[in-house]
Amino acid sequence: MIKVDNVTVGYGTTAFVKAVDRVNLTINDNEILGIAGESGSGKSTLMRAIYGDFSTGLRIASGTITGRFARNGTGAVTEAESHDFGQLWWDQISYIPQGSMSVLNPLMKVEKQVVDGLPKRERQGNRAELRRRIATFLEGFGLEESVLDAFPHQLSGGMRQRVLVAIAAFVNPRLILADEPTTALDVVVQKKILLMMVEIQRRQRNSLVLVSHDLGVHYQITDRLVVMYQGKIVEAGPTAGIFANPQHEYTQTLIASLPRIDGTRAEARR
Amino acid sequence: MRLLRYIAGRLVVYALVVVFGLTVLFFVPRLGPTDPIEAMLAKVASQGAYMDASQVDALRQSLADTFGLSGSLLEQYWAFIKRILLTGDFGPSLSMYPTPVMELIMNALPWTFGLLLTSTLIAWVLGNFVGLLSGWKPESSSSRVMEGVAICLYPIPYYILALVLSILFSYIWQIFPLTTTIRGAPWSWNLVTSILWNSFLPGASIVIVVFGWWVISVKAQTTALKEEEFVRYARLKGLGDGRILARYVLPNAILPQITFLALQIGLMFNGSLITEILFDYPGLGLLIYTAVLQGDFNLLMGTISLSVIAVATATMVIDLIYPLIDPRIRHR
Amino acid sequence: MRILKLFENAPFRLYLGLFLVALFVLVGAILPWFAPADPLVWYTTPRNQDPSWTYPLGTTSLGQDVFWLLTWALRNSLILGLLVAFFSTLIGVFLGLAAGYAGGWLDRVLSFLMDALLCIPSLPILILMAALFGGQLALPIVGVALVLFNWPYPARQVRAVALTMREREFVNVAWFSGESSVRILVRHIFPYIAGWSAANFINTVLVGISTESALAVIGLSSAQQATLGTMIYWAINYQALLAERYVWVGAPVLAIVLMFIGLFLVSSGLSMRSAARRMSV
Ligand SMILES: Nc1ncnc2c1ncn2[C@@H]1O[C@H](COP(=O)(O)OP(=O)(O)O)[C@@H](O)[C@H]1O
Ligand SMILES: [Mg+2]
């Protein structure tokens, strides 16, 4: 679906600071791809390049990122470079940003924030119907309908993060990019949200890219895993395989430093 | 419940502020080196009005009532507060005898409020529009020019601008009237145009300065908000600039300004008083000025008390509106 | 466009403002000493002269030299503004710190006083005083009244800063390590407040000069002293406009405008600076 071909990404126009270094990566249809790596290793930068968010001086220095999106109903195919992904935002691709505290507009009710930016195809029906569908969708996240009428400050951190996941998933896109969606949440809430994301992905049969520095998270839900270190991909393969037999020295230390791998792999329960 | 408590608390503070303000007014005449009543009698005498001794005594007594100068200090104070707050009675105007002061004030208030409200509103809309756009695209040359203009306009006091405008457009180019004369039958089209025509320069002097302020502050807000995560998120949702500005940036930029407005009302009121005097605009400012010139102390005390009450009330209204607009306070 | 671009960063704003203000302060502080005659005295010069080498800004219809009159007016306005700002800031910082730092009933009383004074319009009270005390107010009385009305602005700000400071980590650390309250105030809190107070100080100079001028323009301030406002009042009162002697009115007006723009640039430059500094901590 997405092909990242020998891409170097960095910041700044005059003095270029490299953050992602000659990366090759494919994102397949219907899979959960994990991206791991310590903080500062270039995960967010890579995500932004894939999403096509070239603000704050982000720039692709070399290589290409191309996408191929087949529309759900018609099967019509759109091919584009990530520079032109803007037209696909909140239609074919959606995004779950890092940290939930200030991502939602403090002066807008949650319902409005779900609807704002929604593509036409997901808007069918009158407002009451749409609201009903959103409410049902949120119910799957363990959120009551009253959340729709709440303002962000009335929700707990975990609830807000679930709302963000729900907003991105309700778009029903072909690709969801999630940048550390569960960091800063306690383990119980984190696990709930992760399981929800798996469930939605299995239902929508689209692709989910999950960025996390926490290997435990990847162990729980990803199908395939990519490990980044200092802007480079140092290891890639099926998640189970990597955990069973890490090749790169850096991955080995990471896995060894995990206190204990808790939780069963979602895949096993599929 | 929290909201109710907030409102109740605010109302109590409002009542205290009004009483405090009136207390200040009560003590001011007692601070001076001169006896205000004798000063006033001298003023009346100097204006050539002949009065025999009994008339002077009667006037002296009525003034003593106005200022509440009979009885012990505590009695005086109590009578003063009671009279203003409970009856709203400031006695008859001395210069326009026997029209009650309250009636004169009621005739003047609509002009002051009309002028202040309309010009503030116009300035607010324009200032938000320009401030928002220039904060959104701070690099563009038009937004730089706008900010330069705003920085040069904002620090100018209203009355200075009023003076400049009247020199330019009433003396040098005689486009607008020098002083206000409203003509036309009640509710006629002529009356409306006459009011607009005469209010143009005084209004413009307020609009321009307030506009400068809004451009500066909204631009600063917008520049800061642009970096906020929720604005970035809205952009990543693929929303257009117009929608992001209208629904994400604007509401968040306006809110903090409301509290500021509450603090600013007193200063704005000060400015509009002088503007009215300079243009002979028939509002509260001119009435105060007339009272000073004519030595009409009933009218003076009445207009000043009402100014204090009006500004305190306006501040309270804004304070009460704020939580209705800001959901973070409304739903806690 | 390049010039305008420089408005973005605080230092330039600050420097341009400082330049303007310094110019006026120098003119107001030094030049009055060199006045050839007391510019308040009538008929020391020929009347109604247009600007020339001998009379840079012309003369009034009362035979006063407008240029020297302006320097005297500037001096008096500046002295008034600076004194008002000095005492307002002094009282404001002191009471603001007391309120924010002590809390409790003291805070409540002081906060009420600040809020109450802020929503009482100062000009009507000054007008009342002028009318009661013989039609004109002497400058010292105007000054005292202005201090009474202006200390709440710095006080509120300082109180807010002091409140957040109380929660700050390093203040707590200092507290627990046994530093005395006074030391904490001086070493840790004053440096933070200094920037804001400086901005506020400048702003109060502006408000002070502006309010006195407002009073003066309508003829209720001192007639014994020249200030920028009384100069305007005299010009209007002696029909400078009808006689089309625009320099006479224009000089004090332009002086006020330029000086206020300078003061505003300094105060906003200062607060931009301390905002930046506070963020980087
Ligand atoms: N907006 C930016 N401007 C300049 N450099 C940046 C920016 N964002 C991130 N970087 C730099 O890029 C590198 C990678 O950062 P990032 O992609 O955020 O890593 P991760 O998400 O893995 O923590 C870091 O060295 C970081 O300092
Ligand atoms: Mg990151």
Automatic annotation (TrEMBL), chain A:
InterPro entries: AAA+_ATPase, ABC_transporter-like_ATP-bd, ABC_transporter-like_CS, Oligopep_ABC_C, P-loop_NTPase. It holds the Pfam family ABC_tran. The keyword Transport applies. GO terms for molecular function: ATP binding. Keywords: ATP-binding, Nucleotide-binding, Transport. It is found in: Cell inner membrane. SUPFAM superfamilies: P-loop containing nucleoside triphosphate hydrolases. Its main location: membrane. Belongs to the ABC transporter superfamily. This is ABC transporter ATP-binding protein. It comes from Devosia nitrariae.
Automatic annotation (TrEMBL), chain B:
Keywords: Membrane, Transmembrane, Transmembrane helix, Transport. InterPro entries: MetI-like, MetI-like_sf. It is found in: Cell membrane. It holds the Pfam family BPD_transp_1. It comes from Devosia nitrariae. Belongs to the binding-protein-dependent transport system permease family. It comes from the Bacteria. This is ABC transporter permease. CDD domains: TM_PBP2. Signal peptide: none annotated. The chain crosses the membrane at residues 7-28, 111-136, 156-176, 196-216, 299-322. Its main location: membrane. Residues 109-322 form the ABC transmembrane type-1 domain. It is a multi-pass membrane protein.
Automatic annotation (TrEMBL), chain C:
It comes from Devosia nitrariae. The chain crosses the membrane at residues 12-35, 81-103, 123-149, 214-236, 248-270. It is a multi-pass membrane protein. Pfam families: BPD_transp_1 (PF00528). SUPFAM superfamilies: MetI-like. InterPro entries: MetI-like, MetI-like_sf. Its main location: membrane. Residues 74-267 form the ABC transmembrane type-1 domain. CDD domains: TM_PBP2. This is Peptide ABC transporter. Belongs to the binding-protein-dependent transport system permease family. Keywords: Membrane, Transmembrane, Transmembrane helix, Transport. It comes from the Bacteria. It is found in: Cell membrane.
